[in-house]
Each structure stands twice: as structure tokens, then as C-alpha cells.
Amino acid sequence: MKKYLLISPCRNEESFMKETLDSVCAQSVLPDKWIIVDDGSTDSTPSILAEYANKYDFIDIVTRKNRGHRKVGGGVIDAFYSGLSSINIDDFEYICKLDLDLNLPQKYFEYIIKKMEENPRIGNASGKPYYIDKNSGELVSEGCGDENAIGATKFYRVDCFKQIGGFVREVMWDGIDGHRCRMLGWIAVSWDEPDIRFIHLRPMGSSQKSILTGRRRHGFGQYFMGSSFIYMTIAAGYRMIFHHPFMLGGLAMWWGYVKSALTGVKRLNDKKFRNFLRAYQWNCLFKGKKRATQELNIKQEGCWDAGNPPGWAMDL
Q1: Judging by beta carbons within 10 Å of its beta carbon (0-12, 13-18, 19+), is residue 219 exposed, middle or buried?
Q2: Residues spanned by the domain of 254
């Protein structure tokens, strides 16, 4: 089995982290190294981490200074790179950015690696997130698309991760990376299969404050990434009708985008990427995301060369 590295940024995760720690330590194929970055926790997170690091020799802890608040997006990626800088990435075939609010099935990493080994073009993959309904107790899908790995568990082939330049240190880092994969001919994907369905213990996009704050942040992220106003308006309208919280969630996304445009918020400075993104998004609107993604993956196969130098500078 190929060697894989986990890096987990965390801050004040005492409510969820033991489930994640236990589920990773019970994996059928254990990580060769798991670096957990404590991003200035003020609760019992440090003592819990120390307990597990003393018990499992593959767990290393990196501690960062407390900045005084939780910083989503760029702050999470800053913490991720603090962990990455403590190790040589070339000692591993796979690398995963893993959140500490998940419960993973026992064969999760074994199954992901097996599927990626079967297709060398798959550079970025994950299973699908589910949450437990508070009323019924049933597992409910978070409804994520198949065209990218989920941000909570970004499992990368190291060659692909290096070639796309790693993660951008801003909100929407977990969308930009998948598009960069496709630009260079890699396949980004998530699968909804029983062996790799995982439980998300905190609702996706809920932010550290509220779901609406998370939706506004998503709108800002779409603006930063380079999505067009028309695409964002259609996507927000769809969310208003089909995704909880109905109406308000989609409206919050739209306002996050519009407010960013009105206040002159910076955007990702990459015209080639923006043109690629918008062409793909228009095809998604007219053909459906599944068909548009399949056609693009076929078209981009000629661009794929795992031995090429990085297409972007590593964002270290």
C-alpha cells in the first residue's frame, strides 16, 4: 500500500475531535504520518491531542500561536502549511488535508487509495459527507457534487498536489484546486459509495457563527474565484428553492457575491484560470454538471502529464 500523509488543521475541536481521532486510528490501513496542527486552541484540544500523540507514534503535533479568533479559509490553509513545512512531502505518494469533525468508515483510506491506483489520472478524491438528522436519527446526504473532492477530506496524489501549486490561501481554496486539476488534465472526483461515506459532525458551510454567515462567505468565495454574476445569480436562485435554509441561504450567497463586487474585494489574479472556469460553468448550466464534467475530462486528457513541472508555484 502506498504511503500517505494526513495533515489536520484544528482549533477548539474538543466537541468533535475524539470521534475523528478514533476513526482514523481504527483504519484498516493506517497513515504513515498524521500531523495535527493546533491553531491556538483555548479549550481542551491540546490535552486531547497530547493523549493521542503519546499513544500512537504516527501522530505528530504542531502548535501555533493563538491569533485570538478562528479564521476560516486562508487561516485553515496557513495552519495546513505549518504542518506541511515540518515534513518532506516527497516521502509520500498521497497527502490529505483532513478536518477533525468527521467520523470515517474503517476502510476509508484503503478504498480511496485502491480506486486512485486503478486510474492514474485521478489526482484528487474523497467519499461523500452525510450528517445525522436530529429528529429521525437517519443519515442524510449533504448533496455535494461529483466534480471535486470534499474540502473536509481532500485526498491528493502528491504529484498532482505539487503540479497544481497546492492550495490558495483564501476562501474557495477547495473549489479552485479542483478546477486547476482539470486545467492540467487531472481528474477531481468524489464518490457516493457505502465504504467511503463519512459522517460530518458539523453541518457543511455552517461557519463558526451561523449557516447564513457560511453562505455569505461562499458568495464571497465565488467572487474571489472568478465566477460570473449571471452564473452566481442562477446558482443562488437554485439554492433558494432546493437547499436548506430555503430562500435565505441562496439570498445570503448572492449578497456575499454582490457585496464583494460593490466593495472592490480582490479577486484571484489569473485570467487564464478565470476564462477556463467560466467556460466550464456555462457548460454546466446548459448541459448539466455531470455531462459537462465528463466531456471536459475527456477533452483535457491530452493536457495530462504527471511528470511535468508545477503549473503554478507551490503556495507555501
Answers
A1: buried
A2: 211-262
Which helix (DSSP H) or strand (DSSP E) does residue 156 occupy?
Answer: strand 153-157
Separation between Cα atoms, residue 110 and residue 94, nearest integer Å: 12
Grid cell digits, residue 135: 429528529
| 164 and 230 assigned to the same domain | no
SS3 content of the chain, % helix, strand, coil (to 5): 45, 15, 40
Q: What is the pLDDT of residue 227?
A: 97
Question: What's the Rg (C-alpha) of the chain?
Answer: 19
Are 45 and 85 part of one and the same domain? yes
Show the cell assigned to 106: 474503517
What pLDDT digit, counting tens, does each position of 129-172 carry? 999 988 888 889 998 999 999 999 999 999 999 999 999 999 89
pLDDT at 307 over 90: no
